[in-house]
Every structure is written in structure tokens, then in C-alpha cells.
């Protein structure tokens, strides 16, 4: 049985600038992400991994092509349905840890009581409750990244996009955090896409996407394929 698609894109491209100075971050690409997918997105720095994730999350718009979320509605209207772990933690400096974690639930319309319950549960899972009252400036880089992951989990998303989520973590902590992300995705049936340059991380997932110079390549079994390049 084939899972229903969460995200679909046709001939997606992302260009920055115009004319002779234009930079193509993503060449024409067709893609589909299904419910429950487990995908590693690999490629060198600057290859386009973040561009792909930002488009899929609805945080950026393609320069051309059609992108839709048939299994999610539009993430701009339902922000809790897509959770993004960014390369940098992106915590709000004026909010303490528990306030940062509950924020995504509040934005999604969850009641304050339920949002706080979700936040404390996510922090507990990641062993961070002792930091609940601290401000982001009081955290180490690794602690801040784990708080950002707790924030995603608290939102109970149906699609989790993680951009180098283990870059600031030691090997053991990274493995623990990935275990938690995968368990959360398994329990809710969410899809999980992890962008990484670490082959140990990539080897955890059954499907592999790779990107270089904005050109996406995948294994034969993956739920995405690259459209033929157009003459330029």
C-alpha cells in the first residue's frame, strides 16, 4: 500500500538574482514526499540542501514550478504541521527555554495549558527540563540545538525537516537525538527528511537524496526524481 503524498512539486527551480549575476540554487526538479518517508539528503556545503528544505517547508517560494502540500494543506496556514530543525537553533533571545519550546504550539492555535504540557514533555524526553528557566544566551551550542529540536517535537508535526541537526553535537548525543526524532516520527506517522554531510547519519535512512550544484539525484526507490534539465 502506497502512503498518500504530503508534498508534491513539479519542475521546481530556485534562482537568486537576475541576468548574468543570477545564481541557480535548485535546477528543475519534480518531487513527492509521502507520509512516513525516511530520507537522508546529502551534499557538500552550498550545494542546495537548505534550499530544498526551505521550499518543502513553505518558508521560501520557487522561482518557477508548482509546489503543493496535498496531505498537509498549506504550511503557511497551518504552521504546526511542518517542523523544521535549522542549522542554527534560532531561539528567541527574550524567551526562556520552555517559552521557546511552547511557542510553535501557541502559533498553531493550541491552548496555553496544552502548549506548556507539550513543551515540558518534549524537554523531558531530551533531558532538558533543568534548563527550562534559562535564556538562550545561557546555553551552550549543543544545548541550544537540542532545545530547538524539542520545539519541533512539541509541535507534533506531520513532516519533520532537519537541516544538519547533529552538526553541533558529539557522536553519542547526536545518535540519541536522532533516535528521539525518529521515534517521534514513528509514533505520529510523520515523514522525516534529514539533510546531512555525515555518512553515519545518512546511513540510518532507507532512501538517499544527493544534491550538488543545485542538481538533485536520488536512489531508484526514493519518492523523488529529477526532471530533465531544460536548455538554457
UniProtKB/TrEMBL annotation:
Pfam families found in the cross-reference section: ABC_tran (PF00005)
GO cellular component, one term: plasma membrane
InterPro entries registered for this protein in UniProt: AAA+_ATPase (IPR003593), ABC_transporter-like_ATP-bd (IPR003439), ABC_transporter-like_CS (IPR017871), ABC_transpr_LolD-like (IPR015854), P-loop_NTPase (IPR027417)
Keyword set includes Nucleotide-binding: yes
PROSITE patterns: ABC_TRANSPORTER_1 (PS00211), ABC_TRANSPORTER_2 (PS50893)
Example GO molecular function: ATP hydrolysis activity
Domain of life: Bacteria
Ranges of residues in domain ABC transporter: 7-230
Keywords annotated in UniProt: ATP-binding, Nucleotide-binding
This protein's name: ATP-binding cassette domain-containing protein
